[in-house]
Amino acid sequence: MKLPKPPAQVRIIGGHWRRSLLPVADRPGLRPTPDRLRETLFNWLGDVSGLTLLDAFAGSGALGLEAASRGAARVTLLERDPLLVRSLQTTLSRLTPPPGTQVQIQRGDALAWSPSAPLDGVFLDPPFDADIFALTLQRATAWLAPGAWVYLEAPAEWTAWPPGLERIKHARVGQVHGQVAVWQG
C-alpha cells in the first residue's frame, strides 16, 4: 500500500499551542497522524492533564506535542532519526510549554528504550513498512501503569493485542487505522 506524501506541516488542534504549525520533514516512512484522527483520538482520551506520556516514534512530534499542548505533565518524544531529533528540538525551542508541562526529547530506539517509572499512556505510530507492530505492543506493556492506555496507529485494524491490553476504540481515517487499548495488568 502506497501512502500519500505527507504534508510539509501539520497543526496542533487544541490546548495551549492550538493552531501552532509543526514542520514535517521529508523522510522515508514519516507520515504524521492526520488532523481528523488526532482530533478523534484526543476526544477519546479526554483530559490528559497531569499524565506522563511517551510518543515512541515521535517523527514530527504531532501526537506528543498535542498532548503537551493539552496539559500532560510530562511528555517524552522518542525518535531515533538524528535529523528528526534536531527538527523536534528546533520546534520545541519556539514553543513555550504550558505551565506544569515538561517535554523531553530523547534520541533512541523504541524497542530498546525503558522508562524510569510506569507511564500513563503511550503513542505508538511506528513506520508502516517496518512490520514491528506486535513487537512494539509487547514491549510497551512493560512500560505501563495499571489502567494506562496505548494508542496504536497502523495501516490496518489491529487484532493481535498482547494479553492484558484490551482494545476499546478504533477509527479509520483514509488509509490509517487508530486504536486505543487499556492496560489491565
Whole-angstrom Rg: 15 Å
Which consecutive residue ranges, at least 5 long each, have pLDDT under 50?
A: none
- Please provide the ordered H/E string of secondary-structure elements: EEHEHEHEEHEEE
Mean pLDDT: 93
CATH class, named Alpha Beta
Query: How many H/I helices?
Result: 4
For the biggest sheet, the summary is: 7 strands, mixed
Can you tell me the CATH architecture?
A: 3-Layer(aba) Sandwich
Please report the total strand number as a whole number.
9
How helical, in percent, are the residues? 10-25%
Distance between the termini: 35 Å
EC number: 2.1.1.171
Organism: Amphibiibacter pelophylacis
Keywords: Methyltransferase, Transferase
Protein name: 16S rRNA (Guanine(966)-N(2))-methyltransferase RsmD
Please characterize this protein's 3D structure.
This is 16S rRNA (Guanine(966)-N(2))-methyltransferase RsmD. It comes from Amphibiibacter pelophylacis. Its EC number is 2.1.1.171. Keywords: Methyltransferase, Transferase. The protein has a single domain, classed as Vaccinia Virus protein VP39 (Rossmann fold, 3-Layer(aba) Sandwich), CATH 3.40.50. It contains four helices and nine strands; from the N terminus they run ββαβαβαββαβββ. It has helices spanning 35-45, 62-69, 82-94, 133-141; strands spanning 9-11, 21-23, 52-55, 74-79, 102-107, 119-124, 144-154, 165-173, 176-183. α2 links the parallel β3 and β4. The longest helix is centred in the middle third of the chain and has 13 residues, at 82-94. It is globular.
Quick tags:
single chain; 185 residues; alpha/beta; Rossmann fold; seven-stranded mixed sheet; two-stranded antiparallel ribbon; 4 helices; 9 strands; 30% strand; EC 2.1.1.171; methyltransferase; 16S rRNA (Guanine(966)-N(2))-methyltransferase RsmD; transferase
